[in-house]
Write a structure and sequence with these properties.
single chain, Rossmann fold, two-stranded antiparallel ribbon, 13 helices, glycoprotein, Peptidase_S10, AB_hydrolase_fold, serine-type carboxypeptidase activity
Length: 472
Amino acid sequence: MATPGGFRSSVFFLVFLLQVVSAAAGSFWSVKYLPGFSGPLPFELETGYVGVGDSEEVQVFYYFVKSQGNPRTDPLMTWYIGGPGCSALCGFALEIGPLNFKIEAYNGSVPQLILNPHTWTKKANILFIDAPVGTGFSYAQTPRGLKKGDVLQIEQNHQFLRKWLADHPEFIRNPFYVGGGSYSGMIVPSLTQAISEGNSHGFPIINLQGYIEGNPFSVHKTNDNYKIPYAHRMSFISDELYESLRSSCKGEYNNVDPTNVECIKYVSAYQKCVSRINTGNILKPHCEDATKVTEAATFNDARRSLYNASEQQFLSPRVLPSIPLECDEYAFYLSYYWANDNRVRKALHVREGTIGEWFRCQSTKDYQYDFTSMVPYHMNLSSKGYRSLIFSGDHDMKVPILDTEAWIKSLNYSLIDEWRPWFNEEDQVLGYTRTYANNMTFVSIKGGGHTPQTMQHQSGIMFSRWIVGNPL
């Protein structure tokens, strides 16, 4: 396991800073129009690439949306999607960004885009970044560049941010926050710490203020183990089955001892009970997501890279299985057809020949999982006074709120604001919150699922209050 402070040697930083100063110039473009959106965009959008790695063999694609408030003074933040390997397009057009896909039956034309009234870009400048390599429109120029993992992602994301700021010096003084959701719970705290440590080594200084995490995967061992207590709390399994699971499995439901026949039997009974539950939001219908690469897919990493140029013609989007309109996954379905349209790629300035078929989420089979727990990182960052916002949809079964509450409790922070409801302007309860002495705020979102896509209105209110320092 990588430990806090163990990412880089001083030699690495000297090389790294020389790279930032001498090779900061990325490629970026102002985008005024997007296929599927009627008229000019009513916000400022930039897309581009930043080269990272020893020889810039990894070209990281991003969408940058300037704040619709005051871009010169509003915070600058990132939003990483997780997966690992899910595209930044999710954040830009499905979750917290300024656009949403219009949910209507796909008819073969470019899917339509509409404005998201709850976008976080009303209060912040946001970088939506395709990371790690192979995600979205990011690509490798060499076979070596295809390597990916937790530590490597931290190094490349850190380098990306310093280089991007060197190219955009007007944002160097803006308050900076690292943000992300889901598996990015393993990336956000460690990247925040790398930025904090890197600020002592030279230009450009990042005005780091804190970090934001949504439904964060934070501790490998405990996340799956909290799914069964969560299922019991939601009455998906009976009291009797839950007690049998507890007594036979001793709290370990994931890596079950193959000789523990009783535990295996009861885990199997549990799995039958929840097999048709939508774990992303337990209130929503169970739907299949055909827009991500699985280990069984024929698409492979080499096909996404520039060095294999003979296979780099844009693919005609294949026909996906039909998905009911009422499914959250229908927006994924539309994003697939939108991102695989040549007119869209031209508008976004995606480099020809670098990406074949775009998938919302890529395979993780070659990903190196270097971290097991983010708890030490949270403790270290809080000791330095950084602000943090941790929020969870209370109907998420992928990363149950029970798990998030447990690792936060293990930090042993003193409470300064006890558990209480928080409200919208009509005095309706949107969830519950508590605030800790170490600048950490925890927020539950009532009815929310695994991503901000399922809780745009509530999370928009939460963010707009927290980011300016107002109580929820």
